[in-house]
Amino acid sequence: MVQITLDDLCGLVQYGVKGNASSVALLSRRLASKLKKTDEAAAAKIASLLTSQSMTRDASVSPAPVDLDSRRALLRESSNVILDVEPEWPEHISRVLSQVVRERSAASRLLEAGLEPVRALLFKGPPGVGKTLAACWLARELHLPLLTLDLATVMSSLLGKTGSNIKAVVDYAKSFPCILLLDEFDAVAKKRDDDRDVGELKRLVTVLLQAIDEWPSTSLLVAATNHPDMLDPAVWRRFDSSIDFDVPPASVIAKMLTKEGVSSNLAVEISNMFVGQSFASVQRHLAVAKKASVLDDKHLDQAIVEIALDTAPGDDRVAPTLRNLRIIQLSLRGLSQRKIAEELDITHPTVGRVIKEFKAGA
């Protein structure tokens, strides 16, 4: 039979007296795991105290941190996150994000077994591909406030202040369950062998590493970077998982368009025109098309076709799609199949086939 030893209890008290929350949490998880074999109720109680997902801020939580010189806020805080658009992820991203939600939703069960849910994630990829949106989605799904580091304010020009600002942000975020988003992470976690940077930035990396090591299981830390090659090597192993974000493939773009009201077959055609563009760029095209459909009293299909044609890349890869979109565009304007065939100098059966396929997916 597994029993709680005196060393277990002494270790817990010792780290508690020192104020080492990370070690207290680690020892508590081990105790919960041992107790589960003899006292499931006690193990569940400890796990519940460790996760405290329902915990809210009380008077003991300090005010949000500010830069001591400028008095500007170091964080942007959003409670009850609402998304303007419902994200459509590639399969590999969807799988990892869903697993994060699953682990954190069942945090008590993991803690009872001496395990931890995901605590720290690294998102990497070019701008506009959904890294920030993914952090917002996690905040909504986990019902946690989202704290976003304001890098411009944190990066104080005064020597020594940047590290203090980062520490203040992390200490505040650790004081209650939340998601902390460190955007543009490469700016504050650069390789320490970069001779162009002053010693302050190198010390800052050490501050960040310690912060990640001590991050509590009650919250989730998300770091996002456009330049993963610039990160200090020691940073990588601190994260439980990293996710590669990239421009969406045609299949994902088609789902995005269909979800917003574009006819399914047309969405497939247009997705080929938008391949290579970021999520943000595709969303901008959709927003412009929606406004045009309202202001010009036209169907969304017609508006998005016109935008796709205006922004079409000039290469042979999309030539068949361009032809099909021009046929659909003229059809939506009310031209007959015969007129379309004459104007585009293509056969009447080709025009008929494209229009038939488009109407089938409308």
Automatic annotation (TrEMBL):
One of its GO terms (molecular function) is metallopeptidase activity. InterPro entries: 26S_Proteasome_ATPase, AAA+_ATPase, ATPase_AAA_core, P-loop_NTPase, WH-like_DNA-bd_sf. Pfam families: AAA, HTH_23. Residues 117-249 form the AAA+ ATPase domain. Its EC number is 3.4.24.-. The keyword Transmembrane helix does not apply. It comes from the Bacteria. It is an enzyme of class 3 (hydrolase). Keywords: ATP-binding, Hydrolase, Metalloprotease, Nucleotide-binding, Protease. The keyword Hydrolase applies. Belongs to the AAA ATPase family. This is ATP-dependent zinc metalloprotease FtsH. The lineage of its organism: Bacteria, Pseudomonadati, Pseudomonadota, Betaproteobacteria, Burkholderiales. The gene is ftsH_3.
